[in-house]
């Protein structure tokens, strides 16, 4: 949806929903002044990363991302948990199952971008409401002035232009939570009627790896004695990577690679 043009001074964050008696409304300044600042460095990956590769095996729907729908940055802000507790949320309240997030961007019908994460994840200290990316104000494209950062969870839930936080028993009813970013069994073809509610929404992404150098279509000479491969490997939920193996003969033989952890990374992303 169109990137909103937000004046930071006019922006308000609204915390409401299950167990909250009176909504907590915060300006960006109040957020900065009244809560402890913290940072997290994390890779964020779109759930559709490498769709163009998947599409070579079977037709998939959505933007045909190659291996670049992913990025890494240092995010600075306040803990989501601290803000929820300030709004009156009891961390042990068993009724609360999900936390919804809504952005200031909306479609022509006025529905805002949104998604949710489990309450248990939201209460972990790595989940933050960020106002800085790489030590600077968050650029417009990446969520100015506030953005949810929930490391280890798919990009779609890292809601930009964050405007509303809502506690609930249910997952977010937003299109992007219910009717997008879901993987159907292989028997389902594009064009078939889809029972979206039969498939759970993606939260933590499964394991992923990608060779950046050489890039697809690059030619390498067989006569070269050594070819360098460079790429990344990542697993959702901070699960980490044990090893990356590479085959240059279509999977007959495999070679191990050297792993290097991304600098300052709080949740594990590796380069090989
Ligand atoms: N408000 C809002 N937040 C959003 C989106 C959006 O369209 N609107 N897109 C999501 C998706 S699908 C992804 S992959 C990431 C992309 O983050 P980036 O633009 O910083 O790379 O933002 C997420 N947050
Ligand atoms: Mo995405």
TrEMBL record:
GO molecular function: heme binding; molybdenum ion binding; molybdopterin cofactor binding; sulfite oxidase activity
Cofactor: Mo-molybdopterin
The organism's place on the tree of life at top rank: Eukaryota
GO biological process: sulfur compound metabolic process
Keywords: Heme, Iron, Metal-binding, Molybdenum, Oxidoreductase
GO cellular component, one term: mitochondrion
PROSITE patterns, A to Z: MOLYBDOPTERIN_EUK
Start and end residues of each Moybdenum cofactor oxidoreductase dimerisation domain: 201-265
Domain Oxidoreductase molybdopterin-binding, residue spans: 2-176
InterPro entries, per the entry: Ig_E-set, MoCF_OxRdtse_dimer, Mopterin_OxRdtase_euk, OxRdtase_Mopterin-bd_dom, OxRdtase_Mopterin-bd_sf, OxRdtase_Mopterin_BS
Protein name: Sulfite oxidase
Source organism of the structure: Panagrolaimus superbus
């Amino acid at each position: 949806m169109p990137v909103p043009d937000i004046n930071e001074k006019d922006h308000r964050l609204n915390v409401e929903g299950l167990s909250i008696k009176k909504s907590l409304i915060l300006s960006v300044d109040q957020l900065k002044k009244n809560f402890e600042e913290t940072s997290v460095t994390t890779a964020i990956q779109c759930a559709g990363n490498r769709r163009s590769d998947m599409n070579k095996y079977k037709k998939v729907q959505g933007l045909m991302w190659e291996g670049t729908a992913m990025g890494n940055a240092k995010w600075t802000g306040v803990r989501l948990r601290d803000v929820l507790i300030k709004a009156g949320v009891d961390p042990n309240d068993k009724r609360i199952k999900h936390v919804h997030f809504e952005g200031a961007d909306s479609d022509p019908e006025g529905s805002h971008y949104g998604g949710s994460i489990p309450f248990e994840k939201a209460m972990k200290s790595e989940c933050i409401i960020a106002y800085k990316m790489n030590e600077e104000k968050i650029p417009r494209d990446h969520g100015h002035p506030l953005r949810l950062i929930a490391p280890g969870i798919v990009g779609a839930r890292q809601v930009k232009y964050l405007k509303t936080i809502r506690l609930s028993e249910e997952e977010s009813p937003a299109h992007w939570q219910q009717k997008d970013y879901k993987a159907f069994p292989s028997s389902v073809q594009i064009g078939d009627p889809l029972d979206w509610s039969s498939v759970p929404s993606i939260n933590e992404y499964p394991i992923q790896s990608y060779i950046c150098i050489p890039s697809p279509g690059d030619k390498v000479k067989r006569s070269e004695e050594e070819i360098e491969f460079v790429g990344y490997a990542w697993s959702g939920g901070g699960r980490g990577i044990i090893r990356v193996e590479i085959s240059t003969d279509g999977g007959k033989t495999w070679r191990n690679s050297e792993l290097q952890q991304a600098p300052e990374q709080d949740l594990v992303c590796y380069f090989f």
